[in-house]
Design a protein that fits this description.
Layout: H1 6-19, H2 38-42, E1 48-53, H3 56-62, H4 67-76, E2 79-85, H5 90-105, E3 111-115, H6 122-132, E4 135-137, H7 150-158, H8 172-178, H9 185-188, H10 258-277, E5 317-319, E6 325-329, H11 335-345, E7 353-357, H12 365-376, E8 385-393, H13 397-407, E9 413-421, E10 442-446, H14 454-463, E11 469-473, H15 482-493, E12 499-503, H16 511-519, E13 525-529, H17 539-551, E14 557-559, H18 566-573, E15 587-589, H19 597-613, E16 622-624, H20 634-645, E17 649-651, H21 657-666
Parallel strand pairs: 1-2, 2-3, 3-6, 6-7, 7-8, 8-9, 9-10, 10-11, 11-12, 12-13, 13-14, 14-15, 15-16, 16-17
Antiparallel strand pairs: 4-5
Helix pairs in contact: 1-10, 3-5, 4-5, 5-6, 6-11, 11-12, 12-13, 13-14, 14-15, 16-17, 18-19, 19-20
Keywords: Leucine-rich repeat, Phosphoprotein, Repeat, Ubl conjugation pathway
Organism: Ceyx cyanopectus (Indigo-banded kingfisher)
Protein name: Leucine-rich repeat-containing protein 41
Length: 668
């Protein structure tokens, strides 16, 4: 899992389990201490947090007795996730506003992700999106607290007089003059989000200051609590962590099994929590902004329709720090919500990465394009990564690539992935025309089984002189010359291309083009994944591949997963690393290639001979062997892996091919 610090991982898990009531602290004598708060103790180590269901975690964190916890999170939390949300009442939403304002606007949260919300509450979703974008309408949103946000007052005093009204420091008249309605690119010109920056240190004398005498204020900054200052003292103990029974622990419990207590109970409790949450009913949504949310979208594809929950109207909206990454997974976005997102995007200058996955955008992609187009015209725009995936695409993939690059040529990474193409005819999402020169460096396209026409891709390649990585997935080649035309276009238009990847593209009849790619001196990484390379090949083709790689001194990585390589061809590949080879290959991936233990052992023996003849120098450092048939003879496979690991780094798994085949048959 790439865990760099297990102590941090443990404390972060403990925090989450206590907050959500998965782990009952009273069930372990070491945690059930009168002057000890697990939330306060763990909070400085929490870098990502997930809030679920009815947002009870948000309510708990916004409570007065957890003020020290919230201050710690404001300095440590980087990623805030929402999962399986349900509709909530107004007090819960007020707690969420309070929490988001502290963690995003005056905190260090840089990424907001929302997952799995089949029937999203438009008011709650609007709240999350707008506050993530740095927009907040003050007033009665925090009325249940004793005073307005002291951090806002503190920051206003440090700002110059002409900037203070933008952060709530001016009078009502000035705020009204500075406020706008987010109704498209025209209005967006006056509503910039404040780029992400470090959290303001002005906590003294503010409404957020930890009370004197609180342990978190002793001998250090109030917004970072050290391990030795985890006791709550006079502060009230939190009420979370007492809703479910956990594993009982007596005074004689082994101190080492606290890890097992947290992680094991956490896994069991999370499953229970999700099952319970799935049966709860959402409550009726109430208006958060108190104003009409309808607004027209200036997009060309008929999205000028007005509605009651689509656009965003925020009177006296103030500008605050905003996040740099927004991710929306499996959340249906209506046309009205797409218009709202478009209006937010048009001024979200701090946004660096946008991920929209399975949101049912369809033809409403024109609204997203409109927002991106307005955003790209802002000098401070930082958006560099855009990932879109969905079941269907309203337009052909290559046309959509051109539209997105035309709307936002500053993109560095563009990834599109669709399962099916929408056959419904609709208005074009962009006006066409020449694509301006872009800054694109990485392009990933997963076609919904569309034919790959180089003539449509050529304008994109010409506009992307800086392209370094190209990945094409699930495309069909309409004719035998199409792949050759693509390679010619890449050679002519993209001299900086370093990585080329094909996945699930039938290359069985394109052996000539495959060899040309392997001979290309500019490519450093080539991937042919499940491309049926050897379906109709002969031994001569394998020899030609070996000779091409042996003569290519620039190729660093060759990935051939899922091509039915088999034992015989694997053994032949060992010749790539012979003493007369000029190859600089340092990574070889032969996963999912029907390799048996006997073939792997022979491959290892061949490599050992080449190493001896090369004076003991290892031919390559990395070998990947996932999902091969190694369980058929565990002893032989073990011997082969032992020999290989003496030569290079081997990454494999304990995959059961028989069980995988049974699973495959069960879903046929």
């Amino acid at each position: 899992q790439n865990v760099t610090c297990w102590r941090k991982k443990f404390l972060e898990t403990l925090f989450s389990n206590v907050l959500h009531g998965v782990l009952d602290v009273s069930s372990d004598w070491r945690l059930n201490e009168q002057h000890f708060s697990p939330l306060l103790h763990c909070s400085p180590y929490v870098s990502q947090l997930t809030l679920c269901s009815v947002l009870q975690g948000a309510v708990e964190l916004a409570a007065e007795h957890n003020r020290g916890v919230l201050e710690n999170l404001a300095g440590s939390l980087q990623i805030l996730k929402f999962q399986h949300l349900l509709s909530s009442d107004q007090p819960v939403r007020r707690s969420l506003v309070f929490l988001l304002h502290r963690l995003i606007h005056h905190g260090s949260v840089s990424q907001v992700s929302v997952y799995s919300w089949p029937v999203p509450d438009p008011v709650l979703l609007l709240l999350i999106l707008s506050m993530s974008a740095g927009l907040w309408r003050s007033g009665n949103a925090l009325a249940y607290h004793s005073s307005p946000c002291g951090l806002c007052r503190g920051e206003d005093s440090a700002l110059s007089p002409d900037l203070a009204p933008e952060r709530g420091g001016g009078d009502t008249q000035n705020l009204e003059e500075a406020a706008v309605e987010v109704n498209g690119p025209g209005a967006a010109a006056t509503l910039d989000s404040v780029p992400s920056r470090p959290r303001s240190p002005c906590l003294q004398g503010s409404a957020w200051e930890v009370p004197q005498g609180h342990p978190s204020t002793q001998g250090g900054s109030p917004h970072h609590v050290s391990d030795s200052l985890a006791c709550l003292g006079r502060a009230r103990r939190p009420t979370v962590g007492r809703r479910r029974r956990g594993r009982a622990r007596g005074p004689r419990a082994d101190p080492e099994d606290l890890y097992d207590f947290v992680f094991t109970v956490g896994r069991e409790g999370n499953s229970e929590l999700l099952d319970t949450n799935s049966t709860k009913e959402g409550e009726n949504a109430e208006s958060w902004t108190g104003s009409s949310l309808g607004s027209p979208c200036p997009g060309p594809a008929g999205c000028k329709k007005r509605g009651s929950a689509g656009g965003l109207s925020l009177r006296a909206a103030q500008r605050f720090r905003s996040v740099s990454t927004l991710e929306l997974f499996s959340i249906p976005l209506t046309g009205e919500m797409c218009r709202t997102l478009s209006n937010l995007l048009s001024s979200w200058v701090s946004l660096e990465s946008l991920v929209l996955s399975y949101n049912g955008v369809g033809s409403n992609i024109s609204c997203i394009l409109s927002g991106l187009r307005a955003l790209s015209r802002r000098p401070a725009c930082q958006l560099r990564t855009l990932r879109l995936s969905d079941v269907s695409s309203a337009v052909p993939c290559l046309e959509l690539v051109g539209c997105l690059l035309s709307a936002h040529p500053q993109l560095r990474l563009l990834s599109l992935s669709f399962d099916l193409r929408n056959q419904l005819e609709g208005q074009p999402v962009c006006s066409g025309g020449e694509i301006p020169e872009s800054c694109l460096e990485q392009l990933e396209i997963r076609f919904p089984r569309e034919p790959l026409h180089t003539t449509f891709l050529l304008p994109v390649l010409k506009a992307s002189k800086s392209l370094q990585q190209l990945s094409l997935d699930s495309a069909t080649l309409p004719c035998s010359q199409e792949l050759g035309l693509l390679l010619e276009a890449l050679k002519e238009c993209n001299p900086n291309l370093k990585k080329l990847s094909f996945h699930d593209v039938n290359l069985a009849e394109h052996q000539k083009e495959v060899l040309l790619m392997l001979q290309d001196p500019g490519l450093q990484e080539i991937t042919f994944s499940f491309c049926r390379l050897f379906e109709s090949s002969t031994s001569d083709f394998v020899s030609e591949i070996i000779n091409a790689v042996k003569r290519n001194s620039s190729l660093k990585s060759l990935k051939l997963p899922g091509n039915r390589l088999g034992n015989q061809r694997l053994v032949a590949l060992a010749d790539i690393f012979s003493e007369d080879s000029s190859s600089a290959l340092c990574q070889l991936d032969v996963s999912s290639n029907c390799i048996k233990p006997s073939g792997l052992l022979e491959f290892a023996e061949q490599l050992e001979g080449h190493v001896q003849r090369r004076g003991g120098r290892s031919p390559f450092p990395h070998l990947r062997l996932f999902q091969n048939w190694l369980e058929q003879d565990a002893q032989t496979a073990g011997e082969a892996l032992r020999r290989l690991r003496a030569l290079c780094s081997v990454v494999t798994d304990s995959w059961d091919s028989s069980q995988a085949f049974a699973d495959y048959l069960s879903v046929m």
